[in-house]
Amino acid sequence: MAETGHISVLAAEVLAGLAPKPGGTYVDATFGAGGHCRALLDALDGSGRVLALDRDPDAIIRGEALQKVYPDQLTILHAPFADLGQALTSWGVERVDGILFDLGVSSFQLDQPGRGFSFRFDGPLDMRMDHSRQSGCQTAADLVNTLNDRELADLFFRFGEESRSRKIARAITMDRKKTPFTTTAQLAQLAERVIPNRKRGIHPATKIFQALRIAVNGELDQLQQGLEAAMTALAVGGVLVVISFHSLEDRIVKQSFRMASTQPRVTGPAALLPQTQAAPLPFRQLTRKPIIPTQAEQARNSRSRSAKMRIIQRVAPADQSTVAGGGVL
Ligand SMILES: C[S@@+](CC[C@H](N)C(=O)[O-])C[C@H]1O[C@@H](n2cnc3c(N)ncnc32)[C@H](O)[C@@H]1O
Question: In the predicted model, what is the mean pLDDT of residues 207-232?
């Protein structure tokens, strides 16, 4: 299957959100096909630098071409964004002016049958973003063939919001007694059999593929840890731009941003004491409502349809501010 290439989502809006300044220091936490990263480097116009991360070794190899264009300004690291803190330390930088997370998978990953992300092609039931040997990640087939009925149903319900999770889990555990699951087609066919009526052209395997991908890659934990590391790393005035593609991701982004930009509520006896001067809030949300692609972009790039972009800005230094969670970011 030929690679179709990846079209960067909300490209102009990302650039406007990051507002790159000459000499600034930026992080692209999800390099992918490098489209956003290239636009950022172009906008920096010969000054400033970018650290790009991706947990997929194929993305790192693809990045070598851009590295040659910007040898002094671009550093690309093979690392999960939950390890952003360590990545910055190894780069020798503590604070940055802007960070981008463009979550999920790229078209390069989705459109390669060998990666096993899509029910549109037959391929190994893999779904690991980091398929290098040292990743130690289980594949989707490992989960489908070893989790018990209840664990599978929980996984499909929690990470896929699949209402027929029990029925699907039961069918899987029955089927695998005869033949273990090894391919995407096997799982897609099972979904077609168990959930026969498609809703508005949505394939019945959509939610279970999403759920397995999230579980295989620990995506929600990665996001939580990545956001925390990113907010810690922002300099005053720095911005964090996050594009999410489904409600589970967006909920985490929304809640993290709200916590970081909301004054803690004083309750109990302390509420009766005279008000002391509240510490300044560390962050300000720049998007009350998420930015979504225009109709024209959605028509041009169907993958952009579910995108939601949120932006937060650090407005006070870490050691002078408090957040709703009670901690100091
Ligand atoms: C939507 S693509 C990014 C596309 C990119 N912005 C562009 O314009 O080409 C998402 C990328 O993030 C990577 N990724 C997803 N989760 C990650 C994580 N936890 N750590 C590092 N990279 C991750 C994926 O491997 C994929 O290459």
Answer: 98
pLDDT of residue 328: 46
| Ligand 1 centroid to residue 81 C-alpha, Å | 9
Any ligand 1 atom below 6 A from CB of 123:
no
Tell me: domain 11-108+219-320, CATH 3.50.30.10, correct? Answer: no
Q: Which percentage of the chain shows pLDDT scores above 70?
A: 91
d(CA 211, CA 155): 6
φ and ψ at residue 194, rounded to 5 degrees: -80, -35
For residue 36, give the amino acid letter: H
Judge if the beta carbon of residue 63 lies within 6 A of ligand 1.
no
The pLDDT, as a whole number, for residue 5 is: 86
Where do the domains of the chain lie?
11-108+219-320, 114-216
Exposed (0-12), middle (13-18) or buried (19+): which is 234, by Cβ within 10 Å? buried
How much distance in Å is there from the Cα of 101 to the middle of ligand 1? Answer: 8
The CATH fold assigned to 114-216 is: DNA polymerase; domain 1 (1.10.150)
Q: Is 56 in the pocket of ligand 1 (CB under 6 A)?
A: yes
Question: How much is the pLDDT for 275?
Answer: 62
The span from the CA of 74 to the CA of 56, in Å, is: 17
Tell me, what's the pLDDT at 276? 61
